[in-house]
Design a protein that fits this description.
Blueprint (H helix, E strand, L loop, with lengths): L23 E4 L3 H12 L4 E4 L8 H4 L3 E2 L9 H17 L11 E5 L2 H17 L4 E4 H7 L9 E5 L3 E2 L2 H15 L2 E3 L4 E7 L2 E7 L2 E4 L2 E4 L5 H7 L7 E10 L9 E4 L2 E5 L5 E4 L4 E4 L2 H5 L5 H7 L3 E4 L23 H4 L9 H14 L8 E11 L6 E4 L6 E5 L5 H16 L29
Parallel strand pairs: 1-2, 1-12, 2-8, 4-14, 12-21, 17-18
Antiparallel strand pairs: 3-7, 4-6, 5-6, 9-10, 10-11, 13-16, 13-19, 14-15, 15-16, 20-21
Helix pairs in contact: 1-6, 1-12, 3-12
The structure holds flavin-adenine dinucleotide.
Length: about 450
């Protein structure tokens, strides 16, 4: 689909001139990069965010817009609680309507075993002060009146929220700019400039910028960038499809999901709907390179992942995608300004059927727009938020693994403090860069 927001490169919003030098340069204008830029600028740092295409052009505008504490990995939960608090503040501070609403998130369990998984997670919620609770079958019926479902119960978090990502992240970028960050769209960073073993700047397609600190927040492209600098980061991406319907009556005010259906009402009166947790996965060279690191994820994701044989050219892990270049050459980042893959209409239609079966009185929703995004994931499905020990001056903030929109503001705050060598206020051990070299088998954690 060509008319998805931010695919149009003739309408760039941010064209700040690149300075000769800055304190910190951020690679990537998704929510991780934008929020890091905002918090650094607020601390008085001279910060530049370089985005190869459009701010929020990739995952950060394509997501469901769920701001979810529910089901988070225990290590992420305290950061997510902070993010939830920050969203309330930021929604006021941006001075624009970003569709932020605290409307709760609900998981529907069709099997007793799903309910038990949810119940096992509840102590983590309690410890973090999150108001999640298990629901009985009768309570589910009360929350979803008129629905035809065989749910044995569910999990509900009233303080979870939602926002419209395609409004929120550009608005946050404007906020970062007001705080003093420089933003430059259509400006790929080609490589790090390393002097005496340390970061001394970057080479962009528009020239060199001197700086002592670089944050790599390149979403699905981070591994490709890192590898070209000699840094191995076992990151792969899956394609996730979603759609917007035409306006329909409201059935639930917040986000709701089970493995075959996920939906939430949109500010425009329709729904954002997707097929629960199913994805498509393209086999590229990194899929083979990092197979060992991902073997636990492969096992647990077999049922929900559709394998596609050849990763298309130009994708971060495409067979024809260049892996090495010199700073004076065009790179894969410029060849694919906005990664805008085609959605899987089969799974989207299955989700629509499921919605129609669940609310027969509403009829089958009609699609207004369908799209897809490439979700970057790491073997344990939690990000790297760390300095790279072998490259002083480089911080990595990537691998937000399908749930980075909600946590994005706090990721930005944490990464800004990492850059400034201040106490971050959270235990970041689980997010270390070195965990991939520890010899431990990393499993997708207690997150759903
Ligand atoms: C369909 C879908 C549904 C989702 N639903 C949710 C949800 O409901 N809730 C939730 O919390 N999360 C959700 N997510 C995940 C969430 O969108 C991501 O985790 C989050 O947006 C990642 O942000 P990011 O900044 O790390 O990456 P991105 O948003 O992908 O941004 C990275 C940016 O870096 C740029 N870039 C890369 N390399 C370079 C370079 N060399 N030079 C310059 N720029 C570069 C890219 O162009 C890109 O714009 C969903 C994702 C998808 C696709």
């Amino acid at each position: 689909m060509s008319d998805f927001p931010f695919t149009d490169l003739s309408r760039l919003e941010h064209q700040d001139a690149l300075p000769e030098a800055c304190d910190t340069l951020i690679i990537g204008g998704g929510i991780a990069g934008v929020m890091t830029g905002y918090f650094l600028a607020k601390q008085g740092q001279r910060v530049v965010v370089c985005e190869k295409g459009r701010i929020a052009g990739e995952q950060s505008s394509r997501n469901w817009g769920w701001i979810r504490q529910q089901g988070r990995h225990p290590a992420e939960l305290p950061i997510m609680v902070e993010a939830n608090r920050l969203w309330h503040q930021l929604a006021d501070e941006v001075g624009e309507d970003i569709g932020f609403k605290t409307t709760g998130i609900l998981y529907m369990a069709s099997e007793q075993s799903e309910l038990e998984t949810y119940e096992r997670w509840l102590p983590f919620a309690r410890q973090a002060g999150v108001d999640s609770r298990a629901l009985s079958a009768q309570e589910m019926a009360d929350y979803l009146p008129g629905a035809r479902g065989n749910w044995v119960g569910g999990l509900y978090t009233p303080s979870d929220a939602r926002a419209e990502p395609w409004l929120a992240v550009p608005a946050l970028a404007r906020l970062a700019k007001r705080a003093g960050a420089l933003l430059r769209e259509h400006c790929a960073v080609r490589s790090l400039d390393i002097t005496a073993g340390k970061v001394s700047g970057v080479w962009t397609e528009a020239g060199r910028v001197r700086c002592n600190q670089v944050v790599l927040a390149g979403g699905a492209w981070s591994s490709l960038f890192a590898r070209a600098q000699g840094i191995a980061l076992p990151q792969l991406s899956v394609l996730a499809s979603a759609m917007a319907t035409n306006p329909m009556p409201a059935v639930f005010p917040g986000g709701a999901a089970d493995p075959a259906l996920a939906f939430r009402p949109r500010a425009d009166g329709g729904y954002s709907i997707a097929h629960g947790f199913s994805h498509d996965f393209y086999l590229g060279p990194d899929a083979f390179r990092y197979f060992g690191a991902f073997r636990e994820q492969v096992k647990s994701g077999l049922k929900t992942t559709r394998l596609r044989l050849a990763a298309p050219n130009g994708f971060p892990d495409g067979w024809g995608t260049a892996r090495h270049w010199i700073p004076s050459e065009e790179t894969p980042f410029e060849r694919m300004r906005v990664l805008n893959p085609a959605p899987n209409m089969r799974t989207l239609n299955a989700a629509l059927d499921r919605f129609a079966d669940t609310w027969p009185s509403l009829g089958r929703p009609t699609i207004r727009q369908a799209w897809a995004g490439m979700i970057d994931t790491l073997p344990d499905e939690i990000p790297v938020l760390d300095r790279v020990p072998v490259v002083p001056g480089l911080v990595i903030a990537t691998g937000l693994s399908g749930h980075g929109f909600g946590i994005g503001p706090a990721v930005g705050r944490v990464v800004a403090d990492l850059v400034m060598e201040r106490a971050v206020g959270h235990d970041l051990t689980a997010f270390s860069f070195n965990r991939f070299n520890s010899g431990r088998v990393l499993k997708p954690g207690l997150a759903f």
